[in-house]
Amino acid sequence: MEWLRSLPGRVAVAYEAGPKGFGLARFLVAAGVMWLVAAPSKLQRPTGDRVKTDARDAAHLARLLHLGQIVEVTVPSAEQEAARDLVRAREDCRGDLMSARHRLSKLLLRQGVIYSGGGTWTGKHELWLQRRVAAHLRHGTGHDAGHRGSP
């Protein structure tokens, strides 16, 4: 922060919004520094400019900042950002659950195990699955039956 304050003239900071959150923006606000968080999808890129490096990106952001052509994103409060993180985590878990269910369904289908007792992924379906797995383990059927005693 001292380095920023040591610079001559007015200091402004711009950076692209990204996965690291908005903590830097909130820090800069508290320090009284002018800042902008740029929407990456709205940044004007020169035609044919396909090489992306940190140095080029920084120079490009500085030019756009100087010209006043940065489209800002709204910086959420720490509480809003935490809520967004929670929602994203829930969506990730839900996606993981759906993927696991899909893999299990396809595994059972390949084994010729078909559920016909109504809707899937209900309490009744879960009991049916538990019985199938218990029977499978009791009888030692399946690919790794000989490996049951191995760690």
Automatic annotation (TrEMBL):
Protein name (database record): Transposase IS110-like N-terminal domain-containing protein
Coiled-coil blocks: none
Domain Transposase IS110-like N-terminal: 11-109
Organism: Mycobacterium botniense
GO MF terms held by the record: DNA binding; transposase activity
GO biological process: DNA transposition
Source superkingdom: Bacteria
Pfam family of the protein (one): DEDD_Tnp_IS110
PANTHER family the record matches: PUTATIVE TRANSPOSASE FOR IS117-RELATED (PTHR33055:SF3), TRANSPOSASE FOR INSERTION SEQUENCE ELEMENT IS1111A (PTHR33055)
